[in-house]
């Protein structure tokens, strides 16, 4: 059961110091209950409060990091479901899908053009965040060759759209430390779970409706959590 503002207030220091950004501990407790604040914003939270309220005060959408280095990006970690409720801190990522059947010259040209493309819009600089490499050939060697070309010509994050476990395993060996995103499509995502964990990668679990997504096996969940990994 979700904790109410009064339940949370009982565990706060009640100093009304205002260092969390709101004037009273009760107001802060109400924000925690509404998922509009994080317990870490309270500098005087006790260890007991951290243990009891830590999971309860987490954002409903888990923060996920894709890629590595300066070109890594983050999604999730928001306290609101809709952008009209509150500005998202981690905007939707932009990716372009590549076909591993393309000739190497064409593939390299596509990567070079997309990698440097920037649009100025309403004071924002919109640029590519990731490349999605699709295993349309269903050929392992062809996919790996395309992946090597992509990794050699861009430092952007990579999404591996591939339903073959052995091909994904070989791909992860080529992308060690680069935190790719695994997209197995219609294949059983559970078969890729250990690969993702061992490589520090993220895994897409998809369904045609929220109801069917909720029926997915519990093994996709983080231990002790109701949040999808």
Task: Describe the overall structure.
With 229 residues, this protein is α/β, with parallel strands linked by helices. The protein has 2 domains: 5-53, 3-methyladenine DNA Glycosylase II, Chain A, domain 3 (Orthogonal Bundle), CATH 1.10.15; 64-220, TIM Barrel (Alpha-Beta Barrel). It has helices at 5-9, 25-33, 47-53, 104-115, 140-153, 165-174, 193-199, 210-214; strands at residues 64-66, 73-75, 95-99, 118-121, 124-127, 130-134, 157-161, 181-183, 202-203. The strands form 3 sheets. It has a 5-stranded parallel beta sheet with strand order 3-6-7-8-9, with helices on one face. Strands 1-2 form a two-stranded antiparallel sheet. A hairpin with a 2-residue loop joins strand 4 (118-121) and strand 5 (124-127).
The CATH architecture term of the largest domain is Alpha-Beta Barrel
Q: How is the main sheet built?
A: 5 strands, parallel
Helix content: 25-40%
CATH homology-level superfamily of the largest domain: Dihydropteroate synthase-like
User: How many domains, as an integer?
Assistant: 2
CATH topology category name of the largest domain: TIM Barrel
The whole-angstrom Rg is: 21 Å
Q: What is the terminal-to-terminal distance? A: 21 Å
Order of helices and strands: HHHEEEHEEEHEHEHEH
Q: How much strand content do the residues show? A: 5-15%
Coarse structural class? alpha/beta
- The rough form would be described as elongated
Q: If strands are numbered along the chain, what order do they take across the biggest sheet? A: 3-6-7-8-9
* Poorly predicted sequence stretches spanning 5 or more consecutive residues: 222-229
- Average the pLDDT over all residues and give the rounded result: 86
């Amino acid at each position: 059961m979700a904790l109410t503002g009064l339940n949370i207030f009982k565990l706060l220091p009640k100093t009304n110091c205002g260092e969390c950004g709101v004037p009273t501990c009760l107001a802060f407790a109400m924000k925690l209950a509404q998922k509009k604040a994080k317990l870490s914003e309270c500098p005087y939270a006790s260890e007991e409060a951290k243990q009891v309220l830590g999971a309860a005060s987490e954002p409903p959408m888990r923060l996920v990091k894709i890629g590595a280095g300066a070109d890594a990006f983050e999604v999730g970690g928001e306290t609101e479901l809709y952008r009209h409720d509150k500005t998202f801190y981690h905007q939707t990522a932009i990716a372009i899908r590549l076909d591993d059947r393309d000739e190497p010259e064409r593939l390299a040209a596509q990567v070079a053009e997309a990698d440097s493309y920037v649009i100025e819009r309403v004071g924002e600089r919109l640029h590519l965040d990731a490349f999605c490499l699709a295993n349309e050939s269903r050929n392992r060697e062809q996919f790996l060759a395309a992946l090597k070309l992509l990794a050699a010509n861009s430092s952007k994050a990579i999404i591996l759209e591939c339903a073959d476990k052995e091909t994904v395993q070989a791909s992860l060996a080529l992308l060690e430390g680069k935190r790719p995103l695994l997209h197995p499509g219609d294949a059983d995502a559970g078969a890729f779970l250990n690969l993702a964990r061992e490589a520090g990668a993220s895994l897409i679990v998809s369904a045609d409706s929220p109801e069917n997504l909720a029926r997915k096996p519990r093994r996709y969940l983080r231990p002790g959590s109701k949040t999808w990994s």
